């Protein structure tokens, strides 16, 4: 079953627009630390929605994921970001790092969404 389109814009159209924008930015001396692709925007959107406190099931629907496990990938990235803010050093023993991430995840889940 083909997905219904909201706008008559193809993936190729979006990639062309982004490519032209990146080329224009490069001409102005602007560079990007990550590839600028539709996929990058998709990940960025998902992460911003998590930061804004959107429920995971709502994000799953917005992202068009059939399985919640596909959406949960973003919560793992989110947990790593929180760990980085708390200066977690991954040079520590693996078991200790895993325990710390689990603890941080519990703290985040307990205090999520922000009030």
From TrEMBL:
Biological process terms from the Gene Ontology for this record are: DNA integration; DNA recombination
**Gene Ontology MF term list:** DNA binding
Is the keyword NAD assigned to this protein? no
Question: Pfam families annotated for this entry?
Answer: Phage_integrase
Task: Tell me the ranges covered by the Tyr recombinase domain, including all copies.
Answer: 1-87
Q: Which UniProt keywords apply?
A: DNA integration, DNA recombination
Q: The organism sits in which domain of life?
A: Bacteria
Q: Which InterPro entries match?
A: DNA_brk_join_enz, Integrase-like_cat_sf, Integrase_catalytic, Tyrosine_recombinase_XerCD
> What is the protein named?
ResA resolvase
Biological source species: Klebsiella pneumoniae
* Organism phylogeny: Bacteria, Pseudomonadati, Pseudomonadota, Gammaproteobacteria, Enterobacterales
